[in-house]
Amino acid sequence: MERRTFLRTAVIGSSAAAFGGTLWRGAALADPAQPAAGPYGALQAANSNGILLPSGFTSRIIARSGQTVPGTSYTWHSAPDGGATFTDGGGWIYVSNAEVSASSGGGASAVRFNSSGTVTSAYRILSGTNTNCAGGRTPWNTWLSCEEVTRGFVYETDPWGVNAAVQRPAMGRFKHEAAAADPDHGYVYLTEDETDGRFYRFRPTTWGNLSSGTLQVLVAGTGTSGPVTWTTVPDPDGSPTQTRYQVSGAKVFNGGEGCFYAAGTCWFTTKGDNRVWAYDANASSLSLVYDDSLVTGGAAPLTGVDNVTRAASGDLYVAEDGGNMEICLITPDDTVAPFLRISGQSGSEITGPAFSPDGRRLYFSSQRGTSGSSSGGITYEVTGPFRS
Question: Is the dihedral of CA 185, 219, 155, 69 positive or negative?
Fold first, then answer.
């Protein structure tokens, strides 16, 4: 993936154009999260896995790239990225993308756990695709795996590995990053990993069937309170004109990354400016949850924003690509603090945070591990007293 330094530099001097002048400055920049003590207390010394956690939390390694997943005969993929969990009887499944080329094993894999958290199997659910970065789960229990390449596709996959993956071109062909399904309003939100990317939503013709529908892009409002509108993208195929250039007035987002929907809101991140956004789907308005350049009273705890997930408590967990390899927690009270840190892996990034269905375990990966290579990825589980 592209480095933060380049992306951050690319937006300096052009932020006014990206924001449309003073658009949103009244509401969106009014109350971004500020550093404070986290709800679980200070990080303790690194454990045997090299992870610093609050008191009461423990970690274990689930899988390593290029090695057999313990308890199975399946070899884990390189460069583990976006992930999600699915209920499986009394147990659950964790799916994970492979952010490598098709020739290097691009696609997605899954690990199945029984009710006690023991790994019972692991297997491939998507093959032959390119640079599958993030994605999102659907309410009908499929995994949307997104290609982060120019005119990339979204693939709908079966976490159980029974049904063949299906390409979903109606959802647009662009440099996809993440997806978040909104069952309350009937949309799937999509981020685009470009320095001048856009924020999209897809409305299926029939909810639960992604074979056809309408792709729209977020367009700037006219005031400073944060309302936005949406305009249909004329040609979701993105050829000859790429989707982000087809609608005049579409708001620019500098490097769209993680995306997660819950409780009427879609949270998403932009890596080029280290921001976390909230789209209020009920009010059709946008606001800024976090911006590292607006942190006061010390250094920003969260840099290199990337994948994001949300706990039942309402806490957002934002993974860092770079930074100091932390997952930071943003509370509903607008405070931000590190939840965990991985030591000795500065050449990597944290990817794929997702809670088990019961909310007691958090899964994530270090994409390149200690080696700094895509073949060195490590997938972890953290267990502890997560608040509900």
Answer: negative
What is the total count of domains within the chain?
A: 1
Q: What is the pLDDT of residues 112-133, one digit of tens each?
A: 999 999 999 999 999 999 999 9
Domain with 375 in it: what CATH number?
2.120.10.30
d(CA 387, CA 39): 9
Q: Is the peptide bond before 54 cis (omega within 30 degrees of 0)?
A: no
Question: Residue 21 pLDDT > 50, yes or no?
Answer: no
Is 388 domain-assigned? no
Phi, psi dihedral angles at 304 (to 5 degrees): 65, 45
In whole angstroms, give the CA distance from residue 26 to residue 20: 13
Write down the pTM of the prediction.
Answer: 0.92
Burial (Cβ within 10 Å: 0-12, 13-18, ≥19) of residue 46: middle
Q: What's the CA gap between 171 and 66, in Å, rounded?
A: 32
By residue range, what is the domain housing residue 23? 4-383
CB 102 within 8 A of CB 128: yes
Q: What is the mean pLDDT of the chain?
A: 91
Dist. CA 274–CA 260, nearest whole Å:
17
In a domain, 198, yes or no: yes
Residues 255 and 257: their CA atoms lie apart, in Å, by 6
Q: Residue 369 is encoded by which pair of tokens?
A: 């591990």
List the structure tokens of 158.
Answer: 């079966």
User: Nearest CA to 336 among 374, 380, 301, 379?
Assistant: 301
Query: Quick one: how far is CA 307 from the chain centroid?
Result: 3
CA 357, 361, 364, 369 torsion: positive or negative?
negative
| 298 — pLDDT class (breaks 50, 70, 90) | confident
Using CA atoms, how far residue 266 sits from 173, 232, 298, 324, 327, in Å, is: 21, 19, 29, 26, 19
AA identity, residue 315? D
pLDDT in tens, 139-181: 999 999 999 999 999 999 999 999 999 999 999 999 999 999 9
**pLDDT of 273-291, one tens digit each?**
999 999 999 999 999 999 9
H/E segment holding residue 308: strand 305-310
CB atoms within 10 A of CB 388: 10
CA distance 172 to 201: 10
